[in-house]
# Entry
Amino acid sequence: MPLPQGILDSSLDAIGHTPLVRLQRIADAEGLKCNLLAKLEFLSVGGSLKDRIAKRMVEEAERTGRLVPGKTTVIEATSGNTGDTSFLD
# Structure
């Protein structure tokens, strides 16, 4: 997916474009023969790697009609693992 260019229409358009930085000096210092990269998740729109999953969940709920824009209220009641614990048996 190419990086968005110029001014974005929404912060949602930035989701999925978390910057990668090459860590060549560390790779060289450790004798690594690879492309060592760091993904800067703290620069994500919501400050979390969960931005992508949250966007996907909302889009899917809208697509299937479980979430109706302008009518349905979304309440995010957990700060841990995007609510995954509610699905554990």
User: Anything to note?
Assistant: Residues 84-89 have pLDDT under 50 and may be disordered. The first helix runs from residue 24 to 29. The beta strands are 20-22, 37-39.
